[in-house]
Amino acid sequence: MKKSFIIILMGVMSFLPSWAQEESKGFFKKHPFVNMTEFSLLFGRGKFENFYSFYRGYYPQPYEPTYQVKNHLNLSVQTFNGFYLNPKTAFGLTVGVDSYGSTILMPFSAGVRRTLLQKKQGGSILLGSLDAGYSTNWLNEDNTGFHTKGGISINPAIGYKLPMRNGSSWLINFGYRFQRADYTQERGDDYYWYESNEVRKYKRVVIRFGIEF
Asked: Is the keyword Signal in the record (predicted)?
């Protein structure tokens, strides 16, 4: 009985790899893997709000919010990796690196890519995309007394996919990016100590250039 069980188990184990290989081939044939890597230019005019949460010392006093408005050009790179759920829709994970002046944020987002219009087979495609997630501060280095925290990141876009003969495609997209970040600064000495907090909501027009593999 024990020998029979071992023989059956060995037979099942020998069958599983070939079955899994066939299943994976069938899955990837039905749902092809896709990678879209893009470089972005981020244009915007930011209004930063500074406010002090509290002040402790011998002479406590409140601080009024202050504002600063500037034009900005920032850089970003991102890669979307996923699978085609059907010939027109791909779903996956988008990972990026965004530079906002001295701040580096790394957004992780759920992403979707959808063919909106294609007049002929093999021709250019009108492509819609949406990425939504949360940014981390993993790549950011803060000065002494400063603490940076990422936040919600949303990036809808629309553009064109231009197929090439080798199966890849050039990508150009125009969109909007919203990114929240929180900044904390701590200062003090033997006589006083205070903490200031700043909330920045980066709102940028985005132009993305890249390639799909």
From this structure: yes
The answer for residues whose C-beta is within 8 angstroms of residue 25's C-beta and 6 or more apart is none
Q: Give 139-177 pLDDT, tens digit per residue.
A: 998 888 789 999 999 999 999 999 998 889 999 999 999
Helices (H) and strands (E) in the chain, counts: 1, 9
Which CATH number does 31-212 carry? 2.40.160
Q: Is the pLDDT of residue 24 over 80?
A: no
Residue 165 CA to residue 154 CA, distance in Å, equals: 33
Residue linked to tokens 């790179």: 77
Rounded CA separation 153/134 (Å): 5
Place of tokens 């994970």: 93
For the stretch 46-104, pLDDT in tens is 766 554 444 444 444 544 556 677 888 999 999 999 999 999 999 999 999 999 988 99
**Please, is 164 exposed, middle or buried when counting C-beta atoms within 10 Å of its C-beta (0-12, 13-18, 19+)?**
exposed
Classified as helix, coil or strand, 6 is helix
Whether the full predicted model's pTM is greater than 0.70, yes or no, is: yes
Q: Is the dihedral of CA 157, 162, 163, 166 positive or negative?
A: negative
**What is the residue whose two structure tokens read 């599983």?**
16
Among the residues of the chain, which ranges form H helices?
A: 2-30
* Residues facing 185 on adjacent strands: 146, 196
